[in-house]
Design brief:
The protein is α+β, with helices and mostly antiparallel strands. It contains four helices and seven strands. Helix 3 runs antiparallel to helix 4. The longest helix has 19 residues.
Length: about 130
């Protein structure tokens, strides 16, 4: 199991300018999970950012679940999953989604392992299709 400690120093080691970052996902909600998700806001070109990450050994790609026109992409290395966007609105909506999910879990309103419910909450706030 991954914990937030597994992500120590990751953001500082990235080779592109970062405007803001924060933990999201299961580790943020439960303190542990299959991986550690870090949401990152950058003002750099996403294609250039993805290329730079690939050079650093990250598996940076988009998939059908996360189309490139969504304004963000994921990059993975070991237990760390970066969710990178250059869209400030998307960044803040995802941040609020993480807080809503954490609060609903803490209040016992949703199960922390119900990833589908958390995805619906995030997509509702970001405006992504369900």
């Amino acid at each position: 199991m991954a914990t937030l400690d597994d992500a120590k120093g990751v953001v500082e080691g990235l080779s592109f300018p970062i405007e803001a970052h924060r933990f999201v996902g299961t580790c943020f909600i439960n303190g542990e999970g299959q991986d550690v998700d870090i949401l990152i806001l950058t003002l750099t070109d996403l294609d250039d950012t993805a290329s730079g990450l690939k050079e650093q050994g990250w598996a940076a790609s988009t998939s059908e679940e996360y189309p490139s026109d969504a304004g963000w992409f994921a990059a993975r290395k070991g237990l760390i999953n970066l969710l990178i966007t250059a869209d400030e609105e998307f960044y803040w909506a995802m941040s609020k989604g993480a807080d809503v999910c954490r609060n609903l879990v803490a209040a016992g309103k949703i199960d922390a392992k119900d990833k589908d419910a958390r995805i619906i909450i995030h997509r509702t706030l970001t405006g992504e299709a369900l």
